[in-house]
Amino acid sequence: MNRRSVALGVAVLAVVSLVCGGTVGLPLVMFGLAQAEAAACEVPSLPGPSPIPGAGAWGSAETTNAATIVAVGRQRQVPPRGYVIALATAMQESTLRNLANATVPESLTLPHEGVGRDHDSVGLFQQRPGWGSVRERMTPTYAAGKFYEALLRVDGWQRMRLTDAAQAVQRSGYPEEYQKWEDDAEQLAARVLGLPNIGDIGGGAPTAPCGTDDLGPVPVGPGGWVQPIRATIVSPFGQRGGRLHAGVDMSKADVRGDAIRAASTGVVEQVKCDWYTTCDRDGNTSQRGCGWYVDIRHPGDIVTRYCHMIQRPEVSIGQRVTAGTVIGFVGNSGGSSGPHLHFEVHLNVPPGPYHANGGNAVDPEPWMRARGVPLGTRS
Ligand SMILES: [Zn+2]
Q1: pTM value?
Q2: Residue 249 CA to ligand 1 centre (angstroms)
């Protein structure tokens, strides 16, 4: 994934062109906020006490450690890329074994799966004493938790090369060595999640907020609406080059990878790659469409749309979301000339997907202002 800075004010072509065949009938079930939050905050469980079978070249102990690392990430609502970075790091540091250290006598008295001798490092992530006590660092859930804490403090970690993100946490003498594990880490993450491919993680991915600080608190307006992202409107709603730009484009420096939140409570009505040939990479202005996008249906026949996500959205069709649920991350897929969120609001949308269109789109700017959450960087 290459890094790109955002040129503010750039004319971003984001024509919403949803030409799709077929109609998916969706039961629209609205329900209470508390229930929605409970569903969103379901905590994935850690692997049980019995070891799980090996996966690929990895033995049972290593795979069990991998499952623990992934489960801790999910419990902490870390985006899936974080599991992959954590696994690659542990693969490099310990080949996924909980290592004691020959020079740290206490470590040899604790359960371990091998003995290393690098400085005073122990455990899956070869953490040194600054990370915790010997016992803590040799407890896989603790070690993984500390790794994620540090990773989430790295500004822009989701947009970095894997090895750069890992190195920002580990400060290893061999900063390039994590990179070679990326494919293995993706495959093993998918394996322990029971998915054929890490790209299929979308529907099972964590949502926020559930009391997690990692993605920050989100102010909810009096009408129950939140800003999908905090960024500047760089292109307004209205006619552009003879066709309707049916939403607003929001961007700011370093916006790529920022979390996109459901603007209000509702049910996910559409999750789709609108221009599938390029959805997992940067688009450009000669393409058309939303790239990876999500439609959410809110009570009162309101639909909101979120376009150009960086990867498969974090939600799945039919999933209930609440105001502030993280549904995906800002990207540049589809007809887009730079990382931004194209955000639409549609009113009086007949039931069923594909009914949100230019005819029922309204200007999101006054709409959101009237709900107490004006779009922009000010709260
Ligand atoms: Zn746009």
Answers
A1: 0.48
A2: 5
